[in-house]
Amino acid sequence: xxxxxxxxxxxxWFLLVLLVVLLVPVAVLTSxxxxxxxxxxxxxxxxxxxxxxxxxxxxxxxxxGSAAGxxxxxxxxxxxxxxxxxxxxxxxxxxxxxxxxxxDGIAQLARDVxxxxxxxxxxxxxxxxxxxxxPRAQTMASLEYxxxxxxxxxxxVHQLATRRALLSRPPVPDALSLDQRIAAMEEALGELxxxxxxV
Length: 199
Description:
The chain has 199 residues and is mainly α. It is built from 5 helices and no strands.
């Protein structure tokens, strides 16, 4: 009897193991749900790396509604020019060490497009709460026209950046044709083949 564990000690261990077995999966599932919800919220923003004042509903990721469609179109326009606007946004971590970047006209235009999109997205979110009917339809038609203008501006800024990149590239010498490359390889291999000994 002296060598046996007391009954209450075994029950306590059993309850502790049961608690761990039940709580660990719940904690893992809760964490996964929170991470998924945050990633969906981030994917639904106009610019995933930047928090804007608007908080569009998550259902707008897949909703066929007119407001959701306008939001997704604005998001696509932002993605088109977001990389061009980055030179104007130095990281807060390095602000003291790094000098201010030079003024870049295309980066400033891209930033202006992003700001227009954010303002317009706020209007889309507000208009989505208007009751269905003629006023909402008129508001959405007006917003659709403005979204089209932002999309056009984003496309034009992107084309400007592409043209500037092409013009700033050093000229590439004319590449050899396939026939010229084969002939050059044959000549090089011909020089490497051993010559028969002279008699």
